[in-house]
Task: structure prediction
Amino acid sequence: MVVELISVGTELLLGNIVNTNAQYLSQKCAGLGLSVYYQSCVGDNAGRLAEAIRLAMSRCDVVILGGGLGPTEDDITKETAASVLGLELVEDAHTKERIKAYMGKGKEIPENNWKQAMVPVGAKVLDNDNGTAPGLIMEKDGTRLILLPGPPNELIPMFQESVIPYLKEIASSAIFSVMVKSCGIGESKVASMLEDIIGAQTNPTIATYAKTGEVDIRVTASASTEKEAKKLVKPVVEKIKERLKEAVFTTDEDVTLEEEVVRLLDKYELTLVTAESCTGGLLGGRLVNVPGVSDVYKAGFITYSNKAKRKYLDVSKNTLKKYGAVSKETAKEMAKGGVFQTDADICVAITGLAGPQGATDEKPVGLVYIACYIDDKVQVKEYHFKGNRNKVREQAVVRALDTVRRCILDKYQETARK
Amino acid sequence: MVVELISVGTELLLGNIVNTNAQYLSQKCAGLGLSVYYQSCVGDNAGRLAEAIRLAMSRCDVVILGGGLGPTEDDITKETAASVLGLELVEDAHTKERIKAYMGKGKEIPENNWKQAMVPVGAKVLDNDNGTAPGLIMEKDGTRLILLPGPPNELIPMFQESVIPYLKEIASSAIFSVMVKSCGIGESKVASMLEDIIGAQTNPTIATYAKTGEVDIRVTASASTEKEAKKLVKPVVEKIKERLKEAVFTTDEDVTLEEEVVRLLDKYELTLVTAESCTGGLLGGRLVNVPGVSDVYKAGFITYSNKAKRKYLDVSKNTLKKYGAVSKETAKEMAKGGVFQTDADICVAITGLAGPQGATDEKPVGLVYIACYIDDKVQVKEYHFKGNRNKVREQAVVRALDTVRRCILDKYQETARK
Result:
């Protein structure tokens, strides 16, 4: 099945927002074994939108539209789609009730909201738990038109809860897919380590996705039942895990690297402290992505200046003078200082040169040291990250998280997460 | 002039990456007074790409393609565009020399790189300072086709340096545009405060852009010369600044809120400390976006746990017990503690409930207190931010930066930046 995504909204054409919906939907479709051949984006203009819908229906089996379902006059996606398909709009009592409930009892509801209760005759209505505009599915000559609200916090749960089951149902075969997430090995290295596995496979298919500091491997099988597809995926996932060993940190698509780190800290009742220089708090920020992290994350020190490194982490004046702030020695003392200051079990420290200024021949931009103190021992590694200031810092944060993860695995002789 | 953007790359259709190029190019085109009517995205497939180019040329004056200019066999944008326009490819000696220089002297250059030195007959070549694939501009029947390399760190400088001057040249009129950036007033409030100004204007046009915690207002005028366009823009910008007062933090498009805060700290020789709970270091991370911030940013404390608040910021046990970690009182003590711990001039502190857990009737998710200690005085404000955990935290970071900015303006009776 071939899919086209159409994003509707003048704010996209003005560059006001970045189209994260297109990425989300594309990734999900790939996971369902659907081929997205086109993404398009048009403004809130009836003529151009109708043209885009007609074109998409002429070349695809499933057309997914996002945006333009709201209560304002600008919102014309539903009206335009219905008119292209020659369908009338009628009031849907169920949706009207839901809008009433969502807007709150007793409150006056602005008149224009009822527009959202009008649905094309024969359309399947998808309830919206996070807003007032329902989603809609229509069909003509075997082509499916799926309309979703634009805000990601409405589109994503609706796609997850209503559209994925629908797409699985209409798909000729069942699809099962697992995401193996890894950290610490570059994308081309991963690809070459898995070359024979990837080369030998047609079902399941294997695709690698590089994110900053992370490589994810999607294994997707299609079969007549989901159970059979699962059976095809399982041995391939096992092979990949064997090959990449402890670089694999999860096979659960929804688990992030910081969540896995916090899970390990929790499991072994360990506490963590962070000491950051060039990343300036971004590592702490990633850890606090995880709700309830305060049980294991004792504190963080942002010590961008040398003075702060000395005062809060007890880095010696001599070390800073002799080796500089960006050095193995300083990183080690930062990590040690973090543990001694706080009585935490682990401290991870980052010091580096994110650029653009300050580089020398010996210390180029991208040079980062990450140290980890655990069990009275401190390890430190040197990295050379590529890219601009932000890119360097993001990579350092991911590597620091991975360093903590690997230190805990080492300590408890645990291999990659089951 | 009507513009269509075509992004080329299977990685976009797989959802591997988010299409930030489309946003960048759309925003820049809007600033140049060009109307982007369509964004489309196709994979590395010659047939579908040729079709997309033909369609775009039939409905637009300028077609900008990004991606698919590299050395691999997958990279077919140039070949496909040339074939649609009926142009032959010939070797460009200048580009060949540049590739040689870029790849490094004496090094062996993989054969496939020379592919990038082939250019369509008559095309204008845009030098690439950050990679090996040059950009290209072709023309047919008055429609312009602009080909740019896909990686943002190549596309953005090339657009800035070569494409903007070209577009200005071919435009029938000169465009001048200023971005007024504001913080602390919501988008709908800004819109209503400027309603009469926006309503009265057709040239310059005024458009508002809402970012997390920030509202930017673009004022764009067209005239026969840039000087005249500037003259049209100036009084409108002045009016907006008068209306929004100190909410305006810059009229320089390239200046970020954190840069403005650091500029003010620098100017008045003030030092800053941060104390973060729910944001867990994100505020520090934003400040360290600014290179050389170590002169004014003394240190940051990430005190997500109550223990850390007590130990590093000297928040009293009694305050935490009586009022809770998310309270005015705790925020104030955190800010005070930050200054006393470090001898900095200013400490900004954030404590809040980012969710999803932990909410009560009195303290809902989104409740955040931001305190600022300066000159032996501490001020604190209560905020109710909407959205999920990340959204709440992002808004808190922006408001904390803005709080520091406004405290300094207050102290020195400075109005908005000139």
In short: The mean pLDDT of chain B is 92. Residues 172 and 408 of chain B are 45 Å apart (CA to CA).
